[in-house]
Amino acid sequence: MVSSSEPSEKLRILLMPFFVTSHISPFTDLAVGLAVAGAGVVEPTIAVTPANVAVVRSALDRHGPAACSLVKIATYPFPLVDGLAPGVENLSAAGIDAWRIDAAAVDEALTRPAQEALIRERRPDAVVTDVHFFWNSAVAAELGVPCVAFSGIGPFTALTMGRLTDAVVTNGDGSEPESSQEVVLRGFPWPEIRIPVTEMPEFLRCRSGELNPCVEALGRCFGQVMNTFFELERPFCELLVREGRAKRAYFVAPLYPPPPPAGVNEPCIRWLGSKPCCSVVYVCFGTYAAVSADQLRELALGLEASGKPFLWAVRADGWVPPDGWEERVGDRGMLVRGLAPQTAILAQPAVGAFLTHCGASSVLEAVTAGVPMLTWPLVFDQFIGERLVTEVLGIGERVWDGRRSTRYEEREVVPAEAVARAVARFLEPGGAGEAGRGRAREHAAKAHAAVAEGGSSYCDLRRLVDDLVEAKIRGRE
Predict the structure, then answer these.
(1) CB within 8 A of 371, min separation 6: which ones?
(2) Which of 162, 202, 272, 401 could form a disulfide with 348 if both were Cys (CB 3.0 to 4.6 A apart)?
(3) Are 249 and 224 in contact (CB under 8 A)?
(4) Are 352 and 327 in contact (CB under 8 A)?
(5) 39-53 in b/e burial notation, b at 16+ Cβ within 10 A?
(6) At what angle do helices 360-369 and 432-451 cross, to 10 degrees?
(7) CB-based contacts of 56, cutoff 8 Å, min separation 6
(8) pLDDT one-digit tens code per residue, 63-112
(9) What Cα–Cα distance (Å) separates residue 251 from each residue in 140, 159, 273?
(10) pLDDT tier at 175 (50, 70, 90 boundaries)?
């Protein structure tokens, strides 16, 4: 623990998240956690582009008024990108232009100059960088300060992607493998993981044979922080350390604050309060991936046909349900337009299942709330995260076993009948949802124990502060 014998001036930590809400929010939670863990010692600053300041402030608001005084915000200019409207700087708000932000964000020539200028201007005692910004480890090294990588995913997903990088084989002519192929991972501490090519992250499907610069950068980093807790992924946490994938590993989740009291003034929370225990399926596909209008229609009709109560967070601007749908559903269903208070929703006794895209933060929030999941991954690492939920933890079930893909144009539309069948079966008494709920609640108890005083996450967060303070002291010697 930090002692009074250490230097009195603050440990200044600069945190730099990727340009998407699902990264900015956990980074903000980490900043608050560092400030609390190193009370009176740590001075965290979140660095974002101007249009993303509102996302940071929203995340700080979840922690209460005191959080705004604990965490500072710094800005740097967003790179100039052809075809992108001014002020569009977040993948979650970019719509069809999201690919432009993604491409610019990982382009060292475009994004590094502004980030490096800010780091050199601020001269922090440590940098916490998103793993996508691989160049920041080199910048920090030139300044002689530690760089810590913060990954929103856990060790199961990270190790699986690492093995996929080694296992994926291109065809003899250098082209991509056939979409019907799959990779089988064995001996890892799990009997077997099978992943079709179509469900792999895009960077693995298009790999050039060169080592991913993010992987190289991780090897240079002082350490790696992961948004999980040790007891949830114990064998994979141990393997990550044993294989030396990180010089130092810190498992610090859950970082977000407990949900507000049940009487929070949100219409959806009040609506949930009127429903029986474990009767409602909560539906949300996160803040980024696009869902077609045809798929939204089938989902709407499937939820209607399931006969089960549902709360659906719909992010698609301008989408209108099928004619007469709202009248037929009546009070059995509720739509929430835009961002929903997800942690508060999952904490409600009425929620019996979470139909989710398997984003890492959503999975962690469901685990912490003890809610089992119906899985419907869409992009990136979500198909790997699904396997953690369904195969490793046993707290979820797939909605659909038809053709799925990380590419929008390759997906099949999941029919309403499949949605209705999956939801009804999962929520029926004695079904898979009930068994998954029991296991999820066991993990929830472990999550709460992890962040309690003396718990694994509580100690790892304080160990991170101590290690950075020690690195600062050594740097003066």
Answers:
(1) 282, 346, 351, 352, 353, 354, 437, 440
(2) 272
(3) yes
(4) no
(5) eebbbbbbbbbebbb
(6) 90
(7) 24, 28, 46, 48, 71, 73
(8) 988 888 999 999 999 998 888 888 899 987 777 788 888 888 888 899 99
(9) 22, 15, 34
(10) low
207 burial level (CB within 10 Å; 0-12, 13-18, 19+): middle
Model confidence band, residue 3 (pLDDT cutoffs 50, 70, 90): very low
- Write out pLDDT tens, residues 316-331: 677 899 999 999 999 9
Nearest CA among 335, 284, 275 for reference residue 309: 275
- Contact residues for 285 (Cβ-Cβ < 8 A; gap 6+): 291, 315, 356, 357, 376, 378
Closest to 134 in 3D by CA, of 253, 47, 31, 18: 18
d(CA 161, CA 388): 13
Cα dihedral 356, 357, 362, 364 sign? positive
Cα torsion through 282, 316, 151, 464, rounded to 10: -70
**Cis before residue 44, ω within 30 degrees of 0?**
no
User: CA 132, 32, 76: angle at the middle one, nearest 5?
Assistant: 45
Token pair listed for 409: 């144009």
Compute the mean pLDDT over every residue in the chain, rounded to the nearest whole number.
88
Query: Which two three-digit tokens encode residue 268?
Result: 């959806």
Residue 6: pLDDT above 50? Answer: no
Contact between 77 and 105 (Cβ < 8 Å): no
